[in-house]
Structures are given as structure tokens and as C-alpha cells.
Amino acid sequence: MPQTAVNIDEHLLTERLLEGDPRARELAYDHFGPALFSLILQVVPDNEKAGEILLKVFVKVFQDMHAFRRSGDATFFGWLMRLTREMALQEATGIMGASDGMVFHDKNLLQRFANNLPEGKRDIFQLCYYKGLPKEAVARILGLQPEEVSAQLRETMIAFRKFLED
Amino acid sequence: MELDHYIKSGIIESYVLGLASVNEMEELQHMRRLYPSLNNEIMLVERRLERTALTEAVLPPPEVRERIFQRLSWTTEETIPPGHDNGASNYTFINIHSKDGQHITVHKWWKLFFILVFILSKVCLFFAIYYFLKYQQLEEQKRGMQNVDKQQVIPTK
After folding, report:
1. Can you tell me which residues the record assigns to a coiled coil (chain A) (predicted)?
2. Same-domain status, A159 and A133
3. Average pLDDT, chain B
């Protein structure tokens, strides 16, 4: 569901969430839920399982909002995004993920970016991002040196910076 | 200049996507303390991703929302310390939560109620059989007595 950009006061929202305000929780879910669900679907392309993961993410977020404060992260969405990917990767263990078949559609920003990468860098990015594999494991899978994987991933991130700026 | 080079190295994007290694994370935290303006750069990248993510959002199944708030309300009830409740929740709920919407959630007193109804129905069944047999026995006795009476009446004729 494409969501129109609604300006919400992030500071006020997080303060209310820290207080456990039920209205703030509903607002946070309605605002960020669909975006995070889309993110989960990239790792676990199954509506039902992705829904379960989304449920776990929000229950965890609402029960321990102080974790956001402790993290020192710059934005609430940035924190949510990393937490969601991390939880989706944990739950995706043993599930056929989007990266298993290496079939990607241009449905969202990251997939569009990945599809435009040269093959080698695309494989590294997909294994690191969608599979959550450490660089050493990616190096073993692709028969490369870990330093080579790190270097290529760094170049990919520079390319991603330019991609975002464009 | 050093900061500019650091920003252009793609470390922020790596961190924002959750791809930074432990060493890179530590380095970034150190740089954030040295150069607070780095936080603005991180914020800019995260805001860009947020805007895109909101426009590319996918509506989750509607029951997910309901289940999240249901679970949170259960947790809130469980965490209320004794003596701090509103006096109306001095009982336990059996939380039956199904995925397919074919089940319902009922209070635990229903279990006791059904057990009592079951026992009562068995007692009634026992008495029904008992009185039926008793009735049959009395009927037979009655018929036997009527036969005796008839036999006693016939010789007088």
C-alpha cells in the first residue's frame, strides 16, 4: 500500500511510546507497519510468515522502547528498520528466502539498486543484506578472500550513496 | 576534509542498512563523538530511506494489528502487581488464539460450568433409569396382584 508521507513529530511519538501510550502505539503501527512489512517480505517472501515477524517486531518495540534510547540511533525509523531486518533474518533461517533463487523484481529501492549492480557485487550484496551472512561466509561461498568481499561491499555502499543521492 | 572522505566511503550507508561490521560500528561511534555533524549525515540517509519505504509500503494482513494490541493488553494485565489492579480482574483468562479465526476465547469458569452440567446430566440419567426400573417393578407387582385377585374371585362363583 503506497503510503503518503505524513509528517509526524518523531520526538513526541517516541516520548509517548516510552510512556506506553496506546494511541501512540496505534499511530506508530499504522504509520510504520506497512513499510516494515514490505521490508520483511524482501527477506521472507511469505505473507503469513512476514505477518508473524511483523507482530514480533512491534510487540518487542512496544515492550522495550527504552532499547531505542539506549541504541543512540539517529532516527526512530532507522532503528526500526535495522531491528526488523535483524528479526526477519533470524526467523528466515530454514525458510526459502527471496535470495535463495536470486530472483529479484524492481519492487523497491534496494531491489532496484541490487539489480543494477555488476553480477559479482550483486551476489555479495544479496548474500550480505538478504541472507545476513558475515563477510567471511560470503567469501567462502563465492570462493573469494574476505578482504576482497569487504572491498567490494565498500564499493557497493559508495554506489548506494550515489544511488540515493540521485 | 577527513570527515568528508569518511562520509563518502559509504560507511554511513553500510551502518544504516545493518551491514557494518563490529569494528566499523565501533569506529563510527567514535567518529560520531568526535564529529557530531556526522549524526546529521546519518539522519539524512535514514530519512531518504524512510520516505522511500513509506511510498513502497505493503499493507500487512489486518489481523496482525489486532493480534499485536491483543497481546500487548494481555501483557499489561499480567504485569499489574497484586493490589494495584482495578478490582475487576481477579481471575485468569484462557487465551486461545487461532490463526484461522475458527476458535473463540472463553473464560475459565466455562470449564467448571460444563463439568457441572455433565455431572448433573449423569445424575439425572441415573435417576431416570432407577425410577424407570422401579416403575416397571411396581407395574409387575400390580399386575401380579390383579391376577391373584381374579383367581380369588373366580372360585366364589
Report:
1. none
2. yes
3. 84
Q: Is residue B39 part of a domain?
A: yes
- Please say which residue of B55, B72, B87 terminates a domain: B55
**Complex ipTM, two decimals?**
0.85
Please give the grid coordinates belonging to residue A85.
531486518
- Check A75 against B50: CB less than 8 A apart: yes
Domain that holds residue B112: 108-157
Q: Determine the average pLDDT of the residues in B9-36.
A: 92
B145 sits in the region (left: phi over 0; alpha: psi -120 to 50; else beta) called alpha
Contact A161 B8 (CB under 8 A): yes
Neighbouring C-beta atoms of residue A82, cutoff 10 Å: 18
Are A75 and A124 part of one and the same domain?
no
Which chain A residues touch B71 with a CB distance below 8 Å? 55, 59
- Single-letter residue type at B33: R
Residue pair A73/A79 in contact (Cβ under 8 Å)? The answer is yes
Q: Which residues of chain A have pLDDT under 70?
A: 1-7, 94-106
Number of domains in chain A: 2
Residue B50 located in a structural domain: yes
Whether B91 has a pLDDT exceeding 60, the answer reads no
Q: Does B80 touch chain A (CB under 8 A)?
A: no
Weakest-pLDDT range from A12-21, B23-32, B34-43, B103-112: B103-112
The answer to whether residue B23 sits within a structural domain is yes
Give the A:B interface size as CB pairs under 8 Å.
147
